[in-house]
């Protein structure tokens, strides 16, 4: 059974791949399709991660600052994706906003994997990491299903 950080890294790889695909698209239809996939992935991941990991880490003084920072970055990504969603997909402004979104996502994932995970790893026991991995996967599946219905 994988631990929480393995489960999160799996999602992170999906997000990275979708960001790469997004900035490489040229047709409006492809941009719309990939953006929709990325939006669902980011929304589902953020909700599941916040419920499974951030809420737990926020309860420990050692993780408070790191968790707050990560939550702030989730909010920045949410705003950036909304900016991309409302722009005309046939313009350079859309392409620039898509690149900025990709940059924000990659930056956040790097910071999580090379900073936040280490802080959280000192707070969580091995058992907690396994239990939270299961919770994360349940929440992720629930959110993906809910978002697919919207």
How many angstroms does the end-to-end distance come to?
A: 32 Å
CATH class group: Mainly Alpha
**What is the number of beta strands?**
0
Rounded mean pLDDT is 96
Any idea how many domains? Answer: 1
The CATH superfamily is identified as: nmb1532 protein domain like
Integer-rounded radius of gyration: 16 Å
Name the CATH architecture: Up-down Bundle
Q: H/E series, N to C? A: HHHHH
Oligomer designation: single chain
Per DSSP, the total helix count is: 5
The CATH topology annotation reads as Four Helix Bundle (Hemerythrin (Met), subunit A)
Which shape, going by the Cα principal axes?
elongated
Structure description:
With 150 residues, the chain is an all-alpha fold. It has one domain: Four Helix Bundle (Hemerythrin (Met), subunit A) (Up-down Bundle). The protein contains 5 helices and no strands. It has helices spanning 4-24, 28-58, 64-86, 92-123, 126-149. It is elongated, with a radius of gyration of 16 Å. It starts with a helix and ends with a helix. The model has no long low-confidence stretch (mean pLDDT 96).
């Amino acid at each position: 059974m994988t631990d929480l950080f393995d489960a999160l890294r799996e999602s992170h790889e999906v997000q990275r791949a979708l960001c790469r695909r997004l900035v490489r698209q040229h047709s409006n239809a492809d941009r719309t399709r990939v953006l929709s996939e990325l939006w669902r992935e980011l929304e589902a991941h953020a909700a599941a991660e916040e419920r499974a990991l951030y809420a737990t880490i926020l309860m420990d003084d050692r993780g408070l600052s790191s968790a707050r920072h990560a939550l702030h970055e989730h909010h920045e990504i949410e705003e950036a994706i909304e900016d991309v969603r409302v722009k005309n997909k046939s313009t350079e402004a859309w392409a620039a906003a898509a690149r900025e979104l990709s940059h924000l996502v990659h930056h956040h994932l790097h910071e999580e994997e090379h900073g936040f995970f280490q802080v959280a790893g000192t707070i969580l026991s091995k058992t907690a990491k396994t239990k939270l991995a299961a919770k994360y996967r349940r929440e992720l599946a629930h959110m993906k299903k809910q978002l697919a219905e919207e």
